[in-house]
Amino acid sequence: MTDDRPPVMFVAGAPGLDFLNTRAGPGDATIEWIGGGNDLAQWLGQAGLVPADALAALRARAGRGALDAVAGEARELREWFRGFVAGHKGRRLSRGALAEVEPLNRILARDHIYRTIVPRASHDAPAAALGWHAARRWETPAALLLPLAEAMADVICTTDFSHVKQCEGEGCSLVFLDTTRGHARRWCSMAICGNRAKQAAHRDRAKEAARPRSRR
Description:
Elements: H1 15-20, E1 23-24, E2 31-32, H2 37-47, H3 52-61, H4 64-88, H5 102-108, E3 113-119, E4 130-136, H6 145-158, E5 164-166, E6 175-177, H7 190-210
């Protein structure tokens, strides 16, 4: 079977928001990029949230049905987060939002993380030659939900929600974190919706210029 979907987009500036954009599109032409377990694994790899060797091991051990079931849970988590973002974007979060994040806390409580000693990238000082590295035991397909929950929690805990926006392109539902100077970003991508808006404005100006002027 051929996949006629366009490539998945990473334009949000935060992995948690990028995962929201795995279901997006103009109007009724919504595209679902997480149709099954293979889609989920591929996205997690592209996003850099799960090591390639862990994904390969899980795919080898788990049946397609188990991966597809986790993909279904991931879609449910995504839609919960979509509602959370939609309800809070455009203004800073208050402590009252804590009452809404129980779905994430339940997933995060399942984690199996351990720390090991590994070489540091820099050897400028002997004392800094070794350091801690946090690793996760990827024991079951359900563990794939953990980096998604972490990415969403990172948005909640570190992002100024007054800078979370939805693209102003006609019918575009992509969201992003506006980190531009002055926070003036309007489009998911200048190459996509920004260019379309410029072309539409150019056509409008051309029509206006060609319109006959009434004589006085």
